[in-house]
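Incident review: delayed structure delivery

Summary: a single-chain prediction request sat in the queue longer than the usual turnaround. Root cause was a stuck worker, restarted by the on-call engineer. No data loss occurred. The affected request and its eventual output are reproduced below so the record is complete for anyone auditing the incident later.

Affected input:
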Amino acid sequence: MRTDEHVSIVPREAQPYQGRRAGLVTRSLAGVIDGVVVVVAVLAGYLAVNGLRFLVNPRGFQFSEASPLPSVATALLVLVVYLCVAWATTGRTYGCHVMGLRVVGRHGGRVRPVVALLRAVFCALFPLGLLLCAGGRHHSSLQDLALRTSVIYDWRPGQITMRS
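Output delivered after worker restart:
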């Protein structure tokens, strides 16, 4: 039996939001997921370094001390690299993927690598800039305003269409 009906990967309830700018709650949830990804990556790196130290000197092995300042600096560096690479290549981090979001440039296309890097640094150093997207009809964070980017609902891979 053949049907000419088009089957969409976007749930019927979500279709009106496809291409629209995302709000504070969805973006915050994506940010929390990305934060967990970064924490897991940093912990995995810590365990890997200590595993190598154990292999080199098993008898004198002790876990290295995780000092606060280097740990925070490492986590921020990992966060910036993770965000920059994700936004510059696919426009979405794992948190964005889970929440159906994509970061787009001013014309609705993929952000350039330099813009992705600046946005990642801005987001890592000033995460409270996200709160600005709670007001206004454009749902723009401070980072979006400064770099002319947007975060939109986008469940369709490879297709970017932005609506107001």
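Verification: Residues 17-58+65-153 form one domain.
Action items: add queue-age alerting; document worker restart procedure.
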